[in-house]
């Protein structure tokens, strides 16, 4: 399936890289994200068995790729996930003048030595949330940035005031107009102390990037601690930065003059792994989830154990097994190391099938329960009041045509389809493909009956065509 693409010239050095090459396609000027009528057809009701390999972390990759813009030299990045958000960012860098070389399916070289532009096509930038990392990266390298206001999944107001506050403390003036963010630091950036009023992943990473080449020392207090924050700091350090304390609430960045190239391998995706854990919890079965850092999954696995799921941590894998009933649990989403908001729709879906009444509290985003309406179509008993969802477990879900309304909600729809007897059609799957590499292939390998259906003809027209043929 082709995703979207808009790239002018890519050198593929290894025929095994064909898949990534296709993602980066040569079909100029075609942008299909947001317009897709493609669907997943799922015939559910059976447990999952087998092994699944987790890809590189989306939320690390979408920060590390823009961060490569600050590097004057070749960054070889391994464990790149093949997802449309990555494609989009690579296309943005390419448009800005980066040389991108695909080494194999999961490895690319990015060389931004000759990049001089600070502006990328608006249409590409506005489609993804992570384009805001270009502000920190461009400010860090060029002392100025012009970036579209971020898009991405819609679950309430998504302000960037903490990013702006941080850039201001480093000496940049920031203006938002006509859907764009313009940031300039006439005299270059210099270090300072930034206390974040809310724990923000994006602001922590963005300020970290800008501060990497600022004069002197920057301290970020009340910083986010997610594994992808540590990953970005490790990436920048391996390119010559001096960042200390990432993974704690106080990060110190000692500005350096220049970043030069190097090698880096992105960590495995905590949320993709969590999604497969939740899927097995919901359907039952036994799956070995490979290429994970079990410690990053503790915040998810501890809750699943409470729900009656058996989980064994291995070296770089976890074994998940569910044979008996699922039990109710109360869940509150929080910044890391709390239960991740990006696992909330998936755990709610599993709790729909648990014995008893569960209470879920979303404390990160204002409006992350839109998908509940879809689960109700399948017989789920969920009441939502503001940030709280009360879930009364039912003995089974029934199949229905449902739609993804954002990335993680989309993953939850797939899990619901896997549990429901009969045929479930999941629409708006472009959301899912923003962040899950080959979800259909990976689930098929676990015995799931799931198929990708390319855009059908207008569903209203179909019966008439059939009637006259
Ligand atoms: N916030 C502010 N001001 C800011 C920034 C954030 O008030 O300047 C608030 C937000 O409104 C929200 C909270 O702070 O209530 C946390 O937002 P954060 O900045 O941490 O979120 P983000 O950086 O925009 C990233 C992930 C999200 C994930 C959140 C929370 C990326 C590209 N996105 O978003 O991931 O939900 O952190 O962990 O890393 C996903 O992968 O599906 C996804 C949405």
What would a concise description of this structure say?
By secondary structure, this protein is an alpha/beta fold.
Can you describe what's shown?
By secondary structure, the protein is an alpha/beta fold. The chain is built from 16 helices and 24 strands. The strands form 6 sheets. The chain has a 5-stranded mixed β-sheet with strand order 1-5-6-4-14. A 4-stranded mixed β-sheet has the order 22-23-2-24. Strands 3-15-17-16 form a 4-stranded mixed β-sheet, covered by helices on one side. Strand 18, helix 11 and strand 19 form a beta-alpha-beta unit. Helix 9 (270-283) runs parallel beside helix 13 (407-419). The structure holds uridine-diphosphate-2(N-acetylglucosaminyl) butyric acid. Uridine-diphosphate-2(N-acetylglucosaminyl) butyric acid is lined by residues 59, 62, 129-130, 153, 158-163, 198, 200-203, 224, 341-342, 364-365, 407-408, 435. Uridine-diphosphate-2(N-acetylglucosaminyl) butyric acid (EPU) binds next to helix 2, helix 6, helix 7 and helix 13.
Low-confidence stretches: 1-35, 460-469
Main β sheet profile: 5 strands, mixed
Helix content, binned percent: 25-40%
Give the bound compounds: uridine-diphosphate-2(N-acetylglucosaminyl) butyric acid
Q: Please report the total strand number as a whole number.
A: 24
Average pLDDT number: 89
- If strands are numbered along the chain, what order do they take across the biggest sheet? 1-5-6-4-14
Helical run tally: 16
Counting helices, strands and paired strands, the structural category is alpha/beta
Query: Which word captures the global form?
Result: globular
Rg is 22 Å
Strand coverage percent: 15-25%
